[in-house]
Amino acid sequence: MKQFTEVVENFKIQGVKDDDFMLRLFPYAPTRRAKSCLNSLESNSLPTWRELVEKFLVKYFTPILNARKRKDITSFKKTNEETLFETWKRFK
User: Fold this and answer.
1) Are 41 and 35 in contact, with CB atoms under 8 Å apart?
2) Residue 51 burial (CB < 10 Å; 0-12/13-18/19+)?
């Protein structure tokens, strides 16, 4: 969601609130999940950008998934058989 904030900071439109601008940009996010999340909501059900982001994160980034991803990242190790390049590629 940081991308949207950066775009909004670079493109100020007179008379348009940042919150409204970010809501308009959301369907063009680089993932199908964003568009799917937006389409699953009732029209006019989200008055703010923050509420949209919260619904998106709750739906696609559950606390269990976040904990699992955090564990994977913090316990990541290079194996003896792989090169540093291979390790980096696997990490990314």
Assistant:
1) no
2) middle
Tens-place pLDDT, residues 16-44: 787 777 777 766 665 666 667 667 777 77
Whole-number Å distance between alpha carbons of 23 and 52 = 8
CA 41, CA 43: separation in Å to the nearest integer? Answer: 6
Q: Which pair of tokens denotes residue 7?
A: 């775009």
Res 17: pLDDT: 80
Torsion on CA atoms 50, 53, 55, 59, rounded to nearest 10: -160
Q: How far apart are CA 1 and CA 15, in angstroms?
A: 23
Predicted structure pTM score:
0.39
Q: Which helix (H) or strand (E) holds 89?
A: helix 84-91
